[in-house]
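Q: Got a minute? One more chain.
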Amino acid sequence: VKPKARARLPWCHNRLNKTSPPPPATSAIDSIMTNDTTENGSKRQKVIIHAPHSSLIPPPQLRSLVSGWLQDDIPSHFDVGGHVVGPTIQKAELWMKSSGVLAGIPFFEAVFAVCGECSIQWEDDAIEGKLFNINDNKKIKLATVTGPVSHLLQGERTALNSMSRCSGVATLSNKCVQIATSQKWQGEVAGTRKTTPGFRLVEKYGLLVGGASTHRLDLSQMVMLKDNHVWACGGSIEAAVKKARGVSGFSQKIEVECQSLDEALVAAGAGADVVMLDNFAPQKLKEDAKLFKEKYPHVIVEASGGITMETMADYFSEHVDVISQGKLTQGYDCVDFSLKIIH
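A: Always. Here it is, folded:
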């Protein structure tokens, strides 16, 4: 039995000012009446949030990002394909065709909000973070998009691209988090800043939906002094940390990339909040992390460098707080979706 689709709640902004256009969808919330009743006999209302993390994304940033994608894809002058199909109102169904963790609903919605005059009805179980298993080539319906058919086709590929990639990141991240959980490791699985230019927000969002940590979102969120920083300012880790602390103050953490235990001890002694033990062999990492924590128990230890889903369990240690992997945003497989006009 197919889950029943629901109509979206009206935008609060529209109820206050009916002449204002709806903002881009950044919070997929649906409301349905259940068969349960209250004490006075009225039906209970059930609210389902399809994208629990969506409020993290500022609407102006989301609209600007998506507008740029559409500007890149939609013809600069005439859309002949759009002219062929015309402006009649039609419906298209969103189908998930390969297994994975669903993610990217805010971006999917925002694409059609920017295209204009489109509405989306999500199925009951279309909730970000849920793992869908597609068996025997069967596909799963997630939503129905209604609007001018030319608008549906203008937004189709961009919406699918963003959801496919975001779900891919979430799926790989979730697999790694499940490995950590199964091994009872208490640290955090994290991504890195190795993201696709212009697509960072989507990939970082996918990490969160998959249960991983984003690491720093950009250069300004946390100070990270890598080997190039240290070499470029004379080779002194202590001098680099103190110079960074002089302008970042108390409000920013400072992390130092270290190639040895000695470098990590120097960094912590200079005031670093996080040390990255980079490209350590698993056994050496565990030994040095233990020695480091004996002296600096409150400094965060991150392990990174060449770690993959297949090898990450070798690095688990009670003395390692974070394991980061560039492959979470560089080596993920896309999840397959399609959007088909109902005919």
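A: The longest strand covers residues 29-37.
Q: Perfect, thanks.
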